[in-house]
Amino acid sequence: MYNINSFKNIVGNRNIFIFSLNIEGLGTARLLRKHKFKVGGFVDSRDFGYKKRDGFPIIEPDIFFKEHSPEDAFVIIASKNRKMKREFSKTLENHGFKKHRDYVRILEDLCDYMPTIEIVGNCNLRCISCECGHKDAVKTGFMPVNMFRDILEKMTTEIPFLNSVYLYLWGEPLLHPRIDEFIRITKEFGLASDVSTNLNFTKHLEKFVASNPDYIAIPCSGVGKNYEITHTGGNWEVFKKNLFLLRKYIDKYNVESTVRIMFHLYKHNINGDFQYVKNLTSDLGFQFYPIIAHAFPGKIYDHIVHGKPLPPEIEELDNYLIYSIKDQLEFAYEHRNMKCPVWKVFPTIRSDGSVLTCCNMMHYVLHPNYLDVSLSDLNSLREGNEVCKKCIEFGLHRYFDVSCEVRETEKGLEIKRLL
How far apart are CA 348 and CA 170, in angstroms? Predict the structure, then answer.
């Protein structure tokens, strides 16, 4: 891991280009600008509908390699996608760029933390896949704004290359009446932020959008009644109407927010629903990301490790999953020697200030107050934690891996799990 001074030594007087415009890339560009580095822009082949983000130009890869070399350019790979990171690294090497001399990767070399700060611990829906929708859900209410500021103050001190934070976990962030203040405070610290919303509650949506949030993730699990089965308590027509309302506010305030529709793939939505939502997403100018639907791991962990029966909500959910819970567990155990995909999602802080052992499990608290413990002590607690040991022993750390590749064929969708 580099610190600011050691990073300056290897970059020298070169311009820094960031491969992939994502939340980590955007936050890193802001951090580098704050420390007076020369940032040339983002290198990304995707069409975002704009040529600049946060004042930084977006450059096509072909143009970058035509105009730049290791002599004048230093590259940071921001992508989290394992396949893309390998491909980016190979392409750079083929053009003469050498690792740790001419390029580095954010998560491996600069900041191996992806913190989550939950600003609302309650939810307006009761999704059968989510622990927040179950009877024994732990509800932690609204995070005070002052606590949030104190958390960021401590976090940015302890993690020099901190670039971004995720402002959600179990609850619905748009329930918070001061949601816009959280976005503005995050920007004050030079960080990028990501907010996930079920978009069924919009009382505070306009001021949220007016605060210019960086990334907005919106889960969707089908159309009409199919949506309402797994987004339990939600309403498809309300959700659809609010998608257009979100687009209206983005245009009204001329903000640069990136919106991702996270389409949860189930048995009952992989035919017409998939294409309908994909087309709707395109019409709205949003991004479309299909992921494999799962039951959140907390109850699965308790079932496998402690022998507790699965709750009825999870048993119902299993009927809709493309890969059954049994199949997913067998697949995970086969790949138990691989790293935990969410290990870097830490610290995970609930709205009451407590720190969770794992971002995917609601009931296991590592420490009651993030502000009262050092990051090094938190890491020590996690390294020797019995929950993590058991999770890895049973291969459960590979159970909740939602990454997939979707191919549209004449026979329908082909869905391949990615490792």
Answer: 11
